[in-house]
Specification:
- The protein is α+β, with helices and mostly antiparallel strands.
- It is built from 13 helices and 19 strands.
- Strands 2, 3, 4, 5, 6, 7, 8, 9, 10 and 11 form a ten-stranded antiparallel β-sheet that branches. The protein has a four-stranded antiparallel β-sheet with strand order 1-17-14-13, with helices on both faces. A three-stranded antiparallel β-sheet has the order 18-12-19.
- The protein is globular.
- 43% of the residues are buried.
């Protein structure tokens, strides 16, 4: 088993050959599978034919946000269809989640007083937490926050240059400006957990911005976004007006600022109170304004360019590249002087009918070949790798190990499981000799401090282990701080711009952030014969799997697999 040393792969998904190696079937598992509670069945999507579903296990954070609406109800009735407003008074318990305890707030600016009453979202982010971060972190205007004001039918960008000090920020706020705070999950631990939980629920990138608006003010012009939006009202109240989409629903691009006299039909007027939640799909035109009270809300956004359009584009493009060397007709030149018989001027000319028919036949022949060679699972793997590369890492609460001594060697009589399987992606590849190889990519080393600014995500040496519209809540616990330090690469958070087009709620192309990283994520490589054993670990989670029962012939190889997983910190044994 000398080949069992952990091998790191540096292959980029854009350069990988699409030679998918299937997993050999394993014997049926004898391990005990966890029972699913009735409550879990109620919350999780269980009938795929009813529409989109969200697994209960991965949707726990989303379930908390939308309660008492169930995950099934949300997926079937609201997601990508219509707005959902949940009042704080309708929650099962109008209280703060115990996972997000209140932090001690020191001296604050007079315009940043702590919330008077704790509620569902009050400890996630508020003016006092933001003020503490202004005082203790190197936050810059333009990079970490924008400043804007909407008045007399137009948006005015007021973002200055330089350091965002408490005094400068609150002076602008007192003058009627809205603070647009970029990606506070980079330094607020409660938001780290929220964003990670929503990414886990949807399986795609999630951004988070905070908006702090003074009384009788509006920060942004009416517009629509290219992302689905989740609004968490943290402080005060804000009145939202929602309108029909401009041309069609679920657009792929965000809109420009819209004139008040050219808005589509008004569909909803909703006043959000502290603790309220609001969801609306991408494409819904919206604007929000405060009255006599101030407002702080969080905008969590997702599903940017994550549609069937994007999947089909990726599938056909990648398959076309793969087939180029295999299909001679793809390499042949187009018909000589095709412009003399093709096009609008020649469409109805009967003398060119035969040539046009031959042209159409060849085109359809090539398209049918592409469709017949698309590996739909492989395309999902390619998309998932980009997500794995750029997503936020697991928070410390998910890194608790069931193993007492991490330096101990695993033993056959022990059991093993992934710590957070949604942060691990298994691919089957073929090596240069055509032999199957298992590649395990993971996001445990991603930087929380550069989430949604992904150009820096893997720019540092590997350690051993958004959207638009504090003393931070990092805990003093030494173990948690060590876990955060190990996962977060050094570097200053980036993103944002003070350009007019950078002020929308959705963290889209106009937000100034580079959300996509081109460096490869960490990867473990194993022989292809290990595939069924690794697949068994995915299937059995959250239950542990007996190491001895892993479907690998040699016991030393079973231990070598577990040793490799432990070395990356992505599994635990007991």
């Amino acid at each position: 088993a000398e080949y069992m040393g952990v091998e790191r792969s540096i292959s980029l998904m854009g350069k990988r050959k699409h030679n998918h190696a299937p997993i050999s079937p394993a014997a049926p598992s004898k391990d005990k599978k966890p029972k699913t509670s009735p409550a879990a069945n109620k919350q999780g999507g269980k009938d795929a034919e009813k529409g989109k579903t969200i697994p209960a296990q991965s949707g726990d954070m989303l379930a908390w946000l939308i309660a008492p609406t169930s995950l099934d109800q949300f997926a079937d009735k609201y997601f990508e269809k219509e707005p959902l407003h949940v009042r704080a008074s309708k929650r099962p318990k109008e209280m703060v989640d115990p996972r997000f305890p209140a932090e001690e707030i020191g001296e604050t600016h007079p315009s940043a007083q702590p919330p008077e009453k704790a509620h569902y979202f009050s400890n996630l982010f508020n003016r006092s937490i933001f003020d503490q971060n202004l005082r203790t972190r190197d936050l810059k205007f333009g990079a970490h926050l924008n400043v804007a004001k909407y008045t007399d039918g137009r948006k005015i960008v007021l973002t200055p240059d330089g350091q965002a000090t408490s005094e400068k920020v609150w002076d602008l706020y007192d003058a009627g400006a809205t603070m647009q705070v970029f990606q506070p999950q980079q330094y607020c631990s409660a938001l780290w957990e929220i964003v990670e939980g929503i990414e886990r629920a949807f399986g795609c990138l999630v951004g988070c911005n905070a908006y702090i608006t003074p009384p009788n003010s509006q920060g942004l012009a009416p517009h629509h976004d290219d992302v689905d939006v989740f609004i968490l009202q943290v402080e005060g109240r804000k009145r939202w007006r929602l309108y029909k989409p401009i041309e069609f629903d679920l657009p792929r691009e965000y809109s420009e600022d819209l004139d008040q006299d050219k808005l589509p039909e008004l569909t909803h007027t909703i006043t959000l109170e502290a603790g309220d939640f609001l969801y609306f799909p991408r494409g819904v035109v919206h604007q929000a304004v405060t009255s006599d009270d101030h407002s702080t809300h969080l905008t969590i956004s997702t599903y940017q360019k994550f549609s069937w359009f994007d999947y089909v584009s990726t599938a056909l493009s990648s398959t076309l590249q793969d087939r180029f060397s295999e299909v001679k007709h793809l390499r042949e030149g187009l018909p000589i002087n095709m412009i003399s018989f093709m096009g609008a001027a020649h469409r109805e000319n009967p003398k060119f009918a035969k040539k046009q028919s031959q042209f159409e036949s060849r085109f359809k022949e090539l398209c049918n070949d592409l469709l017949s060679h698309v590996d739909i699972h492989r395309v999902v793997d390619d998309i998932s790798l980009e997500f794995m590369l750029n997503r936020i890492p697991p928070p410390p609460a998910q890194l608790k190990s069931g193993k007492d001594d991490e330096d101990d060697e695993p033993e056959l009589n022990q059991t093993v499981r992934f710590i957070s399987p949604s942060h691990v992606r298994m691919l089957m590849e073929l090596d240069d000799d055509g032999a199957p190889v298992v590649e395990l990519y993971h996001s445990f080393r991603n930087s929380r401090e550069t989430h949604m600014n992904a150009a820096d995500q893997h720019s540092k040496p590997e350690a051993p282990h958004g959207s638009h519209e504090s003393d931070d809540d990092d805990h003093d616990d030494d173990a948690e701080k060590e876990a955060e330090d190990e996962q977060a690469a050094d570097g200053e958070a980036k993103g944002g711009s003070d350009d007019d087009d950078d002020e929308h709620d959705g963290c889209g192309d106009n937000c100034g952030h580079d959300h996509h990283n081109d460096a490869p994520p960490p990867c473990l490589s194993f022989p292809g014969t290990f595939g069924p054993a690794i697949a068994k670990l995915f299937a059995n989670f959250p239950a542990y799997t007996s190491i001895k029962s892993l479907p690998i012939a040699d016991n030393d190889d079973k231990l070598a697999l577990v040793r490799g997983l432990l070395s990356e910190g992505i599994a635990e044994v007991k």
